[in-house]
Design a protein that fits this description.
261 residues, alpha+beta, 2,3-Dihydroxybiphenyl 1,2-Dioxygenase, domain 1, 2 domains, eight-stranded mixed sheet, 18 strands, globular, VOC domain-containing protein
């Protein structure tokens, strides 16, 4: 299994679901992915680690105090070797720091931010005692994309944070999709949303790996979730867009026979 203990700055490294009903979320995702769960207890806001074969793959967290009525949302943390310095760069480039850098026992040092268009994301500095994280295996995250309104604004903001190299894989006009790379290796994508897509605000989307996308769709529906876009073929694998019973949207990606990203 790919076990990651080190990530390049700017690489997505940890998905996290903000949801009021932690127990209900644990039941749903346990049914869909076979995850097990370990709560870190009330001293750390009942933060819950999601495990696949005893390996951490994601987190569940309740909304911050005062935001208990916020919508359930999947967030992604981008790796950084210096979370405090990255938090300063967020503000210097007209982003917003939502949660100041703080230590999260069992994971590392974290902060939450929003980019210039309001898309939320996290910053994570893994510590020496941070556990290895499972990646690109069944039940684990395998890819992330930013859906942005302005490609110029998004590219400028995130490049200033992490020094991404950009490779346009669309035509840049009707289909504006950029691979963001670190040391020539793709780590995530950026898609410019157009008027034909549902009017969602800018956001990050996480892909979670399954062995059979259509079978996972059936488990999602049986557990009370929704299939928003059924399985379809993409160059990097078969994918689907789904939502949990609380409205949090995420993507499925059928486990590829080889690494196509």
């Amino acid at each position: 299994m790919p076990k990651c203990t080190q990530y390049s700055d700017g690489a997505p490294c940890w998905p996290e679901l903000t949801v009021t009903d932690l127990g209900g979320a644990a039941h749903f995702y346990g049914e869909v992915f076979g995850w097990t769960f370990r709560s870190l207890g009330p001293k750390v806001w009942d933060y819950t680690m999601c495990l696949m074969d005893d390996m951490p793959v994601a987190g569940l967290t309740p909304p911050p105090v005062g935001m208990e009525n916020c919508l359930a949302t999947w967030n992604v943390y981008l790796a950084t070797s210096q979370v405090d310095a990255s938090a300063v760069r967020v503000q210097a480039n007209n982003g917003e720091l939502v949660v100041l850098p703080t230590d999260l026992p069992g994971l590392g040092r974290v902060a939450m931010a929003m980019d210039r268009e309001g898309a939320g994301f996290g910053l994570l500095q893994l510590g020496k005692e941070s556990p290895p994280l499972l990646y690109k295996e069944i039940g684990a995250m395998c890819w992330n994309e930013l859906f942005a309104r302005s490609s110029v604004v998004a590219d400028k903001f995130y490049t200033a944070l992490f020094g991404y190299e950009a490779e346009q894989v669309g035509d840049g006009v009707d289909f504006d999709y950029v691979l963001w790379k670190v040391a020539s290796r793709p780590v995530c994508g950026r898609l410019r949303m157009d008027g034909e897509q549902p009017p969602r605000p800018p956001h990050w989307t996480s892909y979670l790996t399954v062995d059979d996308s259509e079978a996972a769709e059936r488990r999602i529906e049986r557990a009370g979730g929704q299939v928003l876009i059924g399985t379809y073929d993409m160059p990097h694998g078969r994918v689907a867009v789904v939502a949990d019973p609380f409205g949090a949207v995420f993507c499925l990606c059928e486990h590829p026979t080889e690494n196509t990203w």
